[in-house]
Amino acid sequence: MTRTYQYSLRFTIDPYNWDDEREEKLIKFCREARIDNVVFFINPEELNQGHPTVNQIREHWLPTIEKVSKRLAKDQVTTSLNPWTTLMHSDRGHKVSPELGFGTMVDYLGHQAESIACPKDPKWVDYITAVYSEYAKLQPKELWLEDDFRHYNHTPIKLACFCDRHMKIYSEMLERKVSREEFVEKVLQPGEPTPERIVYLGVARSEMKQVAHAIQKAVEKVSPKTRLGLMSSFPEWHAVEGRDWDGLFDNLSGSHRRVSRPHLPAYNEVSPLQYSRVFERYTRVTTELVGNHSDVYPELESYMYSPFVKSKTFTKLQVESTQMVGATGILLNLFDMMGNGIDESYDYAELLAESKDLMDFGAQNRLDVNHLDGVKVLFSQDASFNIKTTEGTDPEELLPKEYSWLSLLGTLGIACKPEKWTIKSHFTGETLAISGQFLNNLDNGQIEELIKNNVVLLDGESVQILFERSNLRKLIGADTLEFKKARTDYQSYEQVDGMTIDGIKNPRITMLQHTGDYYKIGYDNSKPVEVLSNAYNEYAEKLGPVMTIVDGRTVILPMNTDPKYGWESQYYSIKEQLLKYILNKTTNLDYVIDMPGVKFVANSDEMVLSNFTIDDQKEIKVHLTAEKQATDWQLYFHEGTKLQSFSVKPEWIKNDILTIPYRLKGLETVILVTKA
C-alpha cells in the first residue's frame, strides 16, 4: 500500500447547528482539498460547556459525528476525534458539576482553579477513562488527548498542582509535613536543586504516565484498533513539569506506533524568518523527543481565522516545511471552532491540493530524523531537575535554555539536528553544540568525554559550569572568568580582527543590543587558542577574546541567552560567515551558501531545503561533504498540482559546492533524494 501524507482536517460540528448544506460543503471540501481524515472536535472553544458528562457525550456530540463519518467513509475519508478537554485549558466561568465532583488544580501561589481538574484526584481519573471509553465506541482512527494534558499554563493559574492532596503526597515523600509556601520556596530555591524540586517533578512525571496508561487500557478494551495521540506545546515548559516523553508515549500508545502532534509556532502570521527560529526549538525538538518510531502530525492552526490572519502562501510554507521533521501528516485547524463549518471563500482546498503530491512523495520517502547529518545540538528532558536557579521566585527560572544553537545554526542554513541526551548517549568524532545549563545534566567524566572526543561548540553558561566543576576549566585551557552584563558600560561590540567578511575589513557585531551577557575568558596557554574575534568598548579599546577555537576542536561563543531577545544579535551575515569559516576549520558538514533564510536538513539519502523568506533564491548552492558529492541526486518540487523532478548533474559540483540551476521561490520547499 502506497503511503500517503495524511491531511487531517480538524473540524467542529455543532449538533444544534448542523444541516445538509453544511454537510455537503464538508464533503465537497474534503474531495477538493484531498483530505484523508477528519478530526472532529468535541466540546471546543466557544461551544465548550465545561467537563461534559458521559450522557452529554453520548446524546449530544457523538450521534451527529457518527452520521457524518459514515458519509465520509464512502469517500475513503477516515474519522478521528479531538475532545477539546482533558484537564481543561482554562477557567471560563465554568465550574466542575457536583455530578462529577472532582477537585481542581491549585497553583504555586495558592490560586485555585474552578474547572481545571487535579490530575491526582481519583474521581477525575475515573471520569477521564470513562469518557474516553465512550469516545472509543465510535471506533475512531485516532483519538487525541489535547495539550491541556499538562501541569502548567491553565489560565488563570500558572504552575500546578499544589492542592491539599498533592501537599500530602509531597510531605509523605519528604517524611515531614510541609506547607505549600515552604515547599514552593524550596522548589525554586536559588542554587543547587533541592529534594523538594526533585519530589515535585517526580510526582508530576509519574502521575501523568499513570493516567495515560489508564486511558490507554480503557480505550483498548472498547476499540483495539484506535490509536491514542498526544498534543503538546513548548518542550521547555514540559521540562518544568518533569515530562518523561518515552514513558508517557509508551503508556499511551500500547501496542500501536506513537502518535504525536508537535506545535507549529504561528497561530497568526509572523515573519517567516522569525518562524524559522521557533520552528527549530518547538517543532524539531518535540519531534526528537517523541522519537523516529512515531507518526508525527504537526499542528497548523490559524487563530483567529481566515486569510486576514494568515496568508495562503504562509500557510503553504507551514504545510510543506513539515518535510523537515519527517512528518507523516498534518492537523489542519483552518476553520473556526464554533460551528460555521467550511468557508469556501478562503480557497484552502486549492492550496492543499497543490501541495499534496509533494507531501505524499515526502511521506513515501520519509526523512529519517534520527540519523540527520550535521551539528548535534544536545538537550535533556531532565533539564529542570538539574538547573541552578538564581532568584528563586518564578517557575520560569526552571526553563532550560538548551536550544539556542539549534535556532541559530538552523536559521543560518547549517545542517544540524536536536539530539536528546539519555543515559545511553555516547559520542565520538561528532560535532556537538551545547548551551545553557545542559552540562549540569552530566557528571565530570561525561563532560570530559564529550569535549575530548568531539568538536564541541560551547556558550558562556557552559564555560561557567566548567569553572564551577573541579579542574574542568583545564579542558579549554582557561584560568580566569569574568562575567560582564550587557549594557553596563563595558562591552559594546565584537570585532573579527584580521578578516574581511562581505567586503568589510575587521567587521563588527553588536554586544550591546538584543544580546546576551559577555563571559570574559582568560586563557592560560596550556592549549593552543585561536582568537577569531574580540570584545571592544565604544572607545575602540580591546577588552578580551570572544569567538575562539581551543585545541583545534572546541569552539566558544562566550555569551548567555538574553531572557527577552535570546541570541538575536547573532542572526547576522557577518556571524554566519564567521561560523561557517570556523566549522570549515574544525569539521566537515553541509550548509547552504548565499541563501539567507533557507533552512537545510540532510542525511545520506535525502536532503530538504525550505526557503523561510519571501525572496526567491536565483539558484540553490550547497556545500556538501564528500559522501554526498559522490551520490546521484534527484530534485523534486511541484508546479501547481503536478509533482516535477530533474536529475542533479555531477558537473554542477565544484570545490565542494553543488550549484543547482533551480530558482527556489520564496516560502518554497524542495526535496532531494538519491536516485534508485
Features:
Rossmann fold; TIM Barrel; about 675 residues; 3 domains; alpha/beta; Immunoglobulin-like; about 30% helix; seven-stranded mixed beta sheet
Summarize the structure.
This protein has 676 residues and is an alpha/beta fold.
Q: How would you sum up this structure, described in words?
A:
By secondary structure, the protein is of the alpha/beta class. It has three domains: 6-91 and 117-152 and 185-363, Glycosidases (TIM Barrel), CATH 3.20.20; 373-411 and 416-586, Rossmann fold (3-Layer(aba) Sandwich), CATH 3.40.50; 591-674, Sandwich (Immunoglobulin-like). The strands form ten sheets. A seven-stranded mixed beta sheet has the order 15-14-16-17-28-27-24, with helices on both faces. A five-stranded parallel beta sheet has the order 3-2-1-13-12. A five-stranded antiparallel beta sheet has the order 30-31-37-33-34. The two termini are 19 Å apart. The relative contact order is 0.09.
- CATH class bucket of the largest domain: Alpha Beta
At CATH level 2, the architecture of the largest domain is Alpha-Beta Barrel
**Strand tally:** 37
State the low-pLDDT regions, or none. Answer: none
Number of domains: 3
Largest sheet: 7 strands, mixed
Shape: globular
CATH topology of the largest domain: TIM Barrel
Helical content stands at 25-40%
**CATH evolutionary superfamily of the largest domain:** Glycosidases
Mean pLDDT: 97
What Rg, in angstroms, do the CA atoms define?
A: 26 Å
Structural class: alpha/beta
End-to-end separation in angstroms reads: 19 Å
Beta-strand residue percentage: 15-25%
- The number of helical runs is 17
In which order are the strands of the major sheet placed? 15-14-16-17-28-27-24
